[in-house]
Amino acid sequence: FQRHTFTHLEQLPYGIGSKIIERVKIGQKSMEIEYASGRIIGISVYPLDLPDLKGFLLKIKDITAEKSFERTAGGAGSYFSYVDLVSIYTHHIKNLLTPLKFTALSLRRELTEPKQIEKVERMVQHIEKINQHVRAFYSRVRTKPIEFRKVNIRKVVGHVKQLLNNDLINNGIIFEFYQNGNELVYADEIHIQQILSDLVQNAIDALKNQKGVRRITVTVRRSENRCPYCGAPFVQIEISDTGPGIKKEDLDRIFNLGFSTKAEGWGLGLYVVDKMVKENRGIIRVYSEVGKGTTFVLYFHPATPDAVGCVEQKVKEV
């Protein structure tokens, strides 16, 4: 598509043009066309009704990788990089922004009042800025492969607290950190910071309307649980809050894609946390009691020779 200019739908390759015409006639505005080769083409149709331009705007994209991810993400034992998930969500966001932009451009053509035109132009600029941020975010994420190294948890927790300190203060939340010794874990430092940041932010959200003492406690210690492969004791990280807790029937679903207890939640945060923990060859567990609070427990390999060798071997086996 990028190397050719097409003036008629019939000129599009793979018979896409005729299929678009068939489906537009019956009012279909989005479609997926799958070929015998396994390739899947996603098409979105946006009607254009401008004074000097009428017709349809087509957005055509190869979505083979995304559909493959969606079809298999729910499989038992499946394991996927959160980068694939980011790809799907950025694609959906851009799909939402496209009709907004063209509606604004259509409105601008019809307006005559300078002040109204200026407002619409600002709207178009904001939409384009969002688009740029989405593209930049995805570009940064997809080019950052996982990098295992020795990670100082005390240092990471300090960064997370500094990042979220305003939210903690504004909501009257006590933040406590305890660590026995100075255990290092073998993982990706950026991932560990993101995991802890997301879990602490979730705890803050849970405590915002909570009566009584609002407290978040992060505890790091050498675990009694050991890696079943190398026998090394895990480094255990607990993130506890005194929030309202999670219903028993929801505990088994909180890591599922699309599930959220928040009215406006996307059901993305804990799903991504779970995937990042697994990418770092870790384990995550959650314990909660309604009215008392919630605790997330993370297990990571220590930065000892045996454990490092174990992680490296697991990475090679993937």
TrEMBL record:
GO MF assignments: ATP binding; protein histidine kinase activity
Domain Histidine kinase, first and last residues per copy: 88-304
GO annotation, biological process: phosphorelay signal transduction system
Keywords annotated in UniProt: ATP-binding, Kinase, Nucleotide-binding, Phosphoprotein, Transferase, Two-component regulatory system
Keyword Nucleus: no
EC number assigned by the record: 2.7.13.3
Annotated InterPro entries: HATPase_C_sf, HATPase_dom, His_kinase_dom, Sig_transdc_His_kin-like_C
Keyword ATP-binding among UniProt keywords: yes
SUPFAM superfamilies: ATPase domain of HSP90 chaperone/DNA topoisomerase II/histidine kinase
Catalytic activity field: ATP + protein L-histidine = ADP + protein N-phospho-L-histidine
Gene3D superfamilies: Histidine kinase-like ATPase, C-terminal domain (3.30.565.10)
First-level EC class: transferase
Record-given protein name: histidine kinase
Organism expressing this protein natively: candidate division WOR-3 bacterium
